[in-house]
Amino acid sequence: MIYLDNAATSFYRPKTVAEAVAEAINTMGNCSRGTYETALTSARTVYETRDLLSGLFHGDGPEQVTFTANSTESLNIAIKGVLDPGDRVVTTALEHNSVLRPLYEMERQGVDLVVVGCTGEMDRGGRSEKERHKGALDYDALKAAITPGTKAVVCTHASNLTGNLVDIRRIGGWCREAGALFLVDASQTAGVFSIDMERDNIDILCFTGHKGLMGPQGTGGICVRKGIRVRPLLSGGSGIMTYSKTHPASMPTALEAGTLNAHGLAGLRAALLYIREQGDGTIRDRELALMRRFHDQVSAIPGVCIYGDFEQQERAAIVALNLGDEDSGEVSDYLAQEHGIYTRSGGHCAPLMHEALGTREQGAVRFSFSHFNTAEEVDLAAAALRAY
């Protein structure tokens, strides 16, 4: 098996992750629900995981990190927790449905939604296929859209389809100038690329634990800047303030109701320690080297169409492509059945990005790399694609 679907979920993880989950299942009780040893062990593990994440993202402290099941839950909490009818919100065509569908829901409730597209879609000189296939965000249009009175800007840090990295530092500066909240979806970048909430002017950062952070599925979270209030999506048991009729308003409990996935968070903690041990940029550089190696080989295949801006020095380790008019699902199935190479085809939950690229009907075959992949695996995948 050659697993090249890491943008969907990390399959290869540090061995310490599984070990930590197994140990947690056998030793940990319910966090914040008791003062006996197994409950306290759980509470310490959860706190340490918050602290590691706050440090990784340069947040405002562990109390500003709340846990969820995944990015989808995080984004629903963040988007629905800051927007009200009549508010204006700006987003982009690069977004995953985890951003788009909550925003469409809020639009139906009276929120003014503005979606900024990509360059090359409708340029003045006519439609440029080369520019269109880059799927590059139109920064000029985005800057113009972030007007005073805009409540929030919601955008991804990297496209899950093209791998294009978004300049969140520049966008964060525009948000500060306009007085808009800046919400970032770090699903494709957390754990791989540097994210500094203070430097990048990020107010709310949403992430999942099972992709670049290499933790278990069912883990994710939100980092909230101090002074920003997010209405909770859920209310219920919290372990504190039992006799209050309302859910606690203090962070992190404000956005957490019910029992946390402490066993999964123990695995996430182990993954975070592994990432810290690797050092800044090591994982990113390894992934990008593998991605470039693959891109250089497949770009010479007759009839291949590769999507994304590969002039970017830094980008997510993703190569999305099509072979002529071949159905992306057929190509992906061939790779899996004939060569044991696992990729993802279709729409990738990114409908506006596919519309921008002109691949709504065909979809695309996405290859996404982990630093645990090898150069030999990359070469075999390129050879298999050539043999189709």
UniProtKB/TrEMBL annotation:
Family annotation (SUPFAM superfamilies): PLP-dependent transferases
Cofactor field: pyridoxal 5'-phosphate
One matching Pfam family: Aminotran_5
Top-level lineage group: Bacteria
Keywords: Aminotransferase, Pyridoxal phosphate, Transferase
GO MF term list: transaminase activity
Aminotransferase class V domain sequence ranges: 2-379
Family, per entry: Belongs to the class-V pyridoxal-phosphate-dependent aminotransferase family.
The name this protein goes by in its record: Aminotransferase class V-fold PLP-dependent enzyme
Species per Swiss-Prot/TrEMBL record: Enterocloster hominis
